[in-house]
Structure formats: structure tokens, C-alpha cells
Amino acid sequence: MAAVSARGLVRTFGEGRAARRVLDGTDLDVAAGEIVAVLGRSGSGKSTLLHVLGGLDRPEAGTVEVAGERVTGVGERRLSSLRRRHIGFVFQFFHLLPELTGEGNVQLAGRVRGAHAEAEERGHALVDRLGLRHVAGSLPHQLSGGEQQRFAIARALVNDPGLLLADEPTGNLDVQAGAEVLELLGELATEGRAIVLVTHEASAAAIAHRVLRLEAGRLVAA
Amino acid sequence: MIRALLAPPRRARTLLAALGIVAASLVVGTAATVGYGLATGFDRAARQADLPHVIARFDREDRETVDARVRALPNLAARSYRHEEKNVDLRANGRRTRKGTLHIVTGGRRGYAVTEGRDLQGPDEVVVERGLAREWELAPGDRLTLYRGWETRIVGVAVEPDNVAFPLTVTPRVYTSEASWPHPVSVNLAQLWLADPERADITLAQARATSFGIGGLSFVTRAGIEVLLGQAAGIVLSLLVAFSLVALVAAGTMLAASDQAEVQRRLPAFGVQRALGFTPARLTAAQAAEAALLAAPAAALGLAGGALAVAGPSAALLAQLNEQPPGAALLPVLGACLLAITAIVTAAATWPAWRAARRPPAEILRGGDLARSPRRRWAADGLLATGARFALAARGRFAASVATIAVCAGVVTLMLALAALLVRLRDDPGTVGKRYQLSVRLSPFDVAAVDDIPGVAAASERYQVDVADSFRLGEPLRMIAYPGDHTRFEAPPLAEGRRLGGEGEVEVGVGLADALGLRPGATLAVQTESGSEVRYRVSGVVRALEHDGRIAYVRPDRLLDAQPDAAPTVSIRLDPDADRAEVERRLAALGAQPVSVGGATTRNAAFLGVLATVLRGVGLAVGLVCLYALIQAVAMTARERRGAVALLRACGGDRRTVAAVFAGAALVVAVPAALAGVLLEWLVLGPLVARLAAGFAALPLAPSPGQVALVVGGLVLLAAGATALVARRTMREPPIAGLREE
């Protein structure tokens, strides 16, 4: 069973003449432990594909399944549950809450209703594992970009998801910090997690088992 | 500019701001309608009815005899006479009373206003007072039977504001002309209109001097009538007027606070505009124009809504007092309120905008309301705490929200305290310093027998005589006399001086002291109905609520010398564990009918019902403002932290998770606001209203623990409601919308 499977996804932005179909019958299957890199021009729909796969956005047509459960066509309550149990997100701009410490941001994901009982312990362990203990009590504005992204990855892993969706995870980092993050993603894949990585950087694509390109709303091999 | 305000990015905020102005204006509208109506109702009614400046009552006399004395009085502009018959049997529409008052008018100026139908013209015609017409559902053309057989036709309905209306008074009034009366009409009531009402004292002094041969003479002036009407409604009217003033101030604070918060929120936009080359003056002017454009229609809507909401109950209240609702006279007042609200909103928006726009653009851009780089870490990390942090991050708006809701909570607490006070004033004589529970009509010789009844702690004869100040006959006051220490039975707190120590001394109420300029050591000279004068030295000033504080406590000897026919009652103070029923039975065996002693306000249930409706109307408006302010606080937090909320949802947070965050944001505003509101009422509003309403008395307006719990609990419930609304709205949009905005 694929960790994530998408069929015939359609997503359009704008209306009338300004309408632009960024996904036009997109299909994708990613197996557990596999890293798939999605490349494409700016505005080609890479991030939109990621959002639709993770249930953050709804397509006009097509289906998505994560761990065998339908993502499309279900209600918000079920979607929340699905995201909590199976999906982790990593964003280009980290999205750390400025009022919380680095570790506080990690633990926040474990405090949502229905989170794993051992989420707090896992969060603590992730901070240690990612080498962030010495800055765990720092606020986001006191952290480097690499540290912020590693906290964001730790947050995405608190509920032990099988699928990690990473949107330009190195786009805001210097070369060294970016390399560290990519190495970390590689490790996570070896643990059996499926990773869909949206990027426009060749170095990022280099860690992927498969590299696809989004063109005219469809995924093709790069 | 209107298009910009209503364009999709700003539409929601514009509507939210407009809603705030509508809610605050609603409070102003209700307060202005009730306050203005009550404050000016008597003057308006007196003007409309052409109420005489002085009304003299005396024993029945031939009209020519009386007129010979009256027409010689100085400062007299006009006069007319009536014959007043009391305890007249009235029947109509299946209703009956034996306590009707029939006024036979004998020409000249009437002193009442016909509000329906016409005035008297021929025989067997009557005009009935409005209270009677309303209560018995009478109209011109209906029949009214007087004296069990005199069939009359109602031709008009009238208002004469020298007394409250039926059924607040138990003596409904009916007017007929002397053409209806089969006998030559003697008169016992004279109405005097003065050329210079300010010089009524001269006319009254002369009237006293020339009244030889006319028995039972008493005068009441317009000022005296106003006092008497005030007594009929008890302390309630003064409280309402004072409350309205406080509500106006509160609404102003709310408007200013919410508008300042709106400008704080727009600081980044100002920064961008300044960077693009806009001058501070232009930005400020645009902000002022926008604020005025938004405020004027919203305020008009709120004022109209508030005025309409309480117009009915307020008019009913005034009608019970025989006073006139303001009608179109309210429009200029509401117009002034509209201007004031628009000015407050505009100023509140313009001033911070001017201050902000003058700063360097880079500083403005850095200094948005949201604290992007918090200065300290928090101990708690739960969802509630996270929501609280979100709300606290916007420090300016947080302070404005807390201030707004605190003022509202203070006003609501005040209303609860007022309502409780009204009940206590009605039911508990101790509230007004009375320490006796029963009163009976018995001879002073029976006091010893009453004292011997088991359960009676003390009994004493009590004399109560209404008199006038000798120097200013238009100032009525009430003398209360006990043979011994009156504080065993009535102990209003001392405001100044000491308790009376002997026959020649008097304790005066603050209301009387203020009216006559009395202080300890001054002389109080009073004239009784018999025309005798008695003088006392003021020993102390007391905060008495009864009779609007126009009261004087003395020993009885001098008073009885001046008015020997003053009939005593016996005041009875019960033991705390007394069997009241047994005491009343023993008193009945002595031939007395015991009367329970109440407080200072009216016992009329309908009247209290109307008052409760008015209070509820104002309370509802204030409650709506509270709810609005909470929704605004939570909605603004939700909008500002849209990305953070979307992130929580991306992590699997469902509606309850989001609601928990918003609940934290709501509670961190609501709980301190509720506590601040209670403190505000306790330390500021309560004492202020008590002082405004009855500076002559000590009104207990501090909130009880139950009221505090009600206000805090109510605000927490409102916070829960606001949270649920905003959470529901937030969950309608896909999480990615918030993440994209970040």
C-alpha cells in the first residue's frame, strides 16, 4: 500500500479568463521509506500539490488517499484526525510561533486534541535527537535559520506521521544548514517515512529516490 | 472612500468597527432617552398643563371671601378656584373605587392639560385623569357614575402633574364644571399664577399674614410638588438619572478605546503609506474622514435603536408620574449625542493616527501592534495559555478590550446592585436606618402595654408632622419626634455634628440641610399647618433617605405645643427571635392594626415592573456591548494569528483545539475585565451614583459576592459564546488560506 496516492487531481485558481489550472489530472504514488522530489517553475503548482496531498486544500476533482484513508471528500473533523495521525508538514518559512520557545513550538503539536499520549516524550526526544537541546529554551528570533527549521521538522514528527510533506525546506537556509536539514530528511526516510519534497534546488533533489517535474498540471519524470 | 471601507479586505473590519459604534450608541440612546425624559418630564408636564406656581388648600369657604384676600396678594398674575371633594364613589366599565377625588372647576385658568377629547363645557360632563382612563380603559364618550347614581359623560382625558397618576396614587381624579353642581359652589382650593415665580416667598408670606379666618390653610409650590413627586417614585428616579449619566461616560470610554485599538492595528499600513510618500497630515485627514464616515451612520442607527428600545417603557414610567415624554424634544438631544459620538470616534481615531503618522516610516513598520519578538518566556504552554499569549501580544488592543469590557462589567454590576437596593429599599426598613418593624395607631397611654408584649424589644410613640420652613414657605419638610432617644428606632448615620440632646435641638437630613443651608449650630424655624412657628438649634446633620432627606428629628414637646392635634403612632422594635405573628395577635387584642414598616420607595408593583423593564432595556444594551467587545477581541486575535491557527490545524488541531486557543484569548480579556469592572463599580461607579442620586443619604451600592459571581460568570459565558462563534467561522476556511497569508 502506498503511503500516499493521488489520482486525477484538478485545482484551479482564479475565475473566468484569469482562471489558471495548476493541477490538471495529476497522479502520484509514494511508497513508505521513499523520498520523492517535485521540481517545477515558480507558480507551477508544486506547493498546491503538497497542500492537496495533506488535506490543507481541497481539489475540484480527483482523489487522495493517505495510509489507505481518503483525504478528499471527507469532513473537516476527519481531515483533522487524519493530519494528526498520518501527516507532518515542513514549511519554507518554518511557521514557528514567536511567543513559544523552540521546544514549546515542538510540543504544541502534541497538545492538539487527540494527539498521541506519548507525544510530549517524543517531542522531548526529538529535540535531543536533532541536537537542539542547548537552544530548546530560546525563542524563535534568537535561533538561526537552520535551528528554526530543525525545530519545525521536530514539530512535524511529534505525532509520528508516516508521511512528511516538505515545502522548500531549504529555501530559506544557507548551504550548510540546508545540507543538515536534507541529511535529516534522508534519515527520516530510512525509518520508513514517505517524504514528498517540493524544491527547486538541485542539491535537495539529489537526496530523492525519484525526481518528478510538475508541468502543465501533470507530474512527469525529470 | 466608502468603496475602500467596504472592499473585501476591509469589509469585515469595517463592519466590526461599525457594530461597536452601533452597540455603544445603543447605550447612549437608551441612557439619553431615559435620563432626559426623567430629568425634564415634570417641567414639561407643568408647562403643558399650565400648572399654577402655588396651590393653596383650606377649609371650605365662600368664593368671594377667599377672592377678596387672594386678589390683594402681591406678585399675582392670575388665579382660579376649585372645590375638591374627596372619597367620592366612582364606577365605570365594571370597575369601582370609593377613593375618587372630584374637582369642581369654577372658571379661569385650569391648571391641567387635556390630552384627549375636549375640556368641560356643559352640565353632567366630566374630564378624567389619564391614569384613570388608562387603568379603567375609559375614553371620551364613555359613561362614569359618581356618588352611586350621578350619571356623567366623559368628554376628555387630562393630565395635572401636581400628583402622580392613578393607580400609583390611590385617589383617581375627576373634573367637572360648576354647571354640573346643583348647589352654590364654595371653594377649598386656590390656584395662583405669579408674575415672578422666583419671588413666591413674598406672596406666600403675605398670604399667611392675611389668612386670618381661613382655616386649614396649607400651600404647596411647584418646587414642593416636584419634591413630592420624587418621593412617590422613591429614590428610583434619581438613581436612574444618575445611572444614565454614568452610562454616557462609559459609552464614551468604550468608543475611544475601541477606535484607538483599530488605529493600532493599522499601524503597518500607515508605515507603508508613509514610505510611499504620504504626509502625516494627509494620512491623519484620511483617517479622520474615514472614521467620521463610519461613525455617523452607525451612531445614528445605534441611537435610534436605543431610543426606540426604551421609548415605550420610559413613556409608561413618565405616565405613571403624570409627566410628559419628551417627544420631538428628544431629537435635538439625540442629535447632540450623534455629534458627540461622531466627534469622539473621529478624535479617538485621529489622535493616535496623527501620533503614529508623525513617526519615521521605518519605526512605524517595526512598531506594529503585534509583539513579534516577545520579551519574556511563559511558564505555561497549554492551548489556553497559547491563546492568552496571542491576545496579550497585541498589547494596545488587549488594554483597550479590557478597558471597554471592564466599564461594561462595572455598569452591569452597578445595575445588579441597584436592583438589589431597590428590593431592599422596598422590603427592608433597616436599609434606610429604621430599626423598628411594626407601627400601630394607639394612644400613647398604651405604649407600656405594647412594651410588655413578649417579643417586643422596645416601643415608643412617634409623631410625624409635615411643615414648611418659616423663611421659605415653598420648602416642605417632615418633622419626626420621639420622646426619648430616637436612634433606638430610627438611626440614619450622622454626616456632621452630633445627635440631638434636648428639647430645643434638631437633627436635620442632608437634603434639608442642603436646601436651607443648615449646618450644626444654625437655627431651623418651621411653620406648622396651624400657622405657629417653632425654632430649633441644629445639633447634627444625618444621611436620611426618607422624604428625600428633607427630614428633621426632634423631641415632641415644642412640636405638640405648636400643633396639638398631631396624632401619634407607636413604633415597635421586635426582638431578633420574636414570634411576629404572636406579637401582631397581641397587638390586635389591644385594638390596633399593626402595619409592617417598609423602606423608602413605592410598593406599587406595576410601577416597579416598569422600572425593571427600563433597567432591563439598558442592561440588554450594555450586555450586547460586552458581547460585541469580546467577539471583536477574539475575532481580531483570530484574524491577526490566522497563520498560527492554520498551523495548529495543519498539525491536526480540530475545532475544539482551535476553540481552546480562542477561549484562552477570550478569558485573558474577560476575567481581568470582570474583576476590574467589579472594582470599578465598588470604588467608583457605586459611590458616584449614590452621590449623584442621593447625596443626602448613605446608599449601600457595593456589590455582593453573589453579584460579583454573576458578573464574572456571565462574562465567562459570553466569552464562551464569542469563542464558539469565532471558532466556527475560522473552521469554515481551509487551513492553507491562513498559511498562505503568513
**Rg from Cα of chain A:** 17 Å
Give the N-terminus to C-terminus distance of chain B in angstroms: 28 Å
**Rg value of chain B:** 32 Å
Q: Quaternary state, please?
A: heterodimer
Mean pLDDT of chain B: 82
Count of distinct structural domains of chain A? 1
What features would you describe in this structure?
The complex is a heterodimer of chains A (222) and B (742). By secondary structure, chain A is of the alpha/beta class. Helices cover 32% and strands 26% of the residues of chain A. Chain A contains seven helices and ten strands. Among the domains of chain B are: 171 residues, no CATH class; 187 residues, no CATH class; 159 residues, no CATH class. Chain B contains 22 helices and 20 strands. Chain B has a six-stranded mixed barrel with strand order 2-3-8-5-7-6. In chain B, strands 12-13-18-15-17-16 form a six-stranded mixed beta barrel. The longest helix of chain B is centred in the first third of the chain and has 42 residues. Chain B is elongated. About 1% of the residues of chain B have low confidence. At the A-B interface, helix 2 and helix 3 of A face helix 12, helix 19, helix 20 and helix 22 of B.
Topology overview:
The complex is a heterodimer of chains A (222) and B (742).
Chain A: E1 4-13, E2 20-30, E3 35-39, H1 46-53, E4 61-66, E5 69-70, H2 76-86, E6 87-90, H3 102-108, H4 119-129, H5 145-157, E7 163-167, H6 175-190, E8 194-198, H7 202-205, E9 210-215, E10 218-221
Parallel strand pairs in A: 3-8, 3-9, 6-7, 7-8
Antiparallel strand pairs in A: 1-2, 1-4, 4-5, 9-10
Helix pairs in contact in A: 3-5, 4-5, 5-6
Chain B: H1 2-6, H2 8-49, E1 54-61, H3 63-70, E2 76-92, E3 95-105, E4 113-117, E5 125-129, H4 130-136, E6 143-146, E7 150-159, E8 173-177, E9 187-194, H5 200-209, E10 218-221, H6 222-232, H7 236-265, H8 267-275, H9 280-320, H10 330-357, H11 361-366, H12 383-393, H13 395-427, E11 438-440, H14 447-451, E12 456-469, E13 476-481, E14 494-497, E15 505-509, H15 510-516, E16 523-527, E17 533-542, E18 551-554, H16 556-562, E19 569-574, H17 580-589, E20 595-596, H18 605-640, H19 642-650, H20 655-694, H21 705-731, H22 735-741
Parallel strand pairs in B: 3-8, 5-7, 13-18, 15-17
Antiparallel strand pairs in B: 1-9, 1-10, 2-3, 2-6, 2-9, 4-7, 5-8, 6-7, 11-19, 11-20, 12-13, 12-16, 12-19, 14-17, 15-18, 16-17
Helix pairs in contact in B: 2-7, 2-9, 2-10, 2-18, 7-10, 7-13, 7-20, 9-10, 9-18, 12-20, 13-18, 13-20, 13-21, 18-20, 18-21, 19-22, 20-21
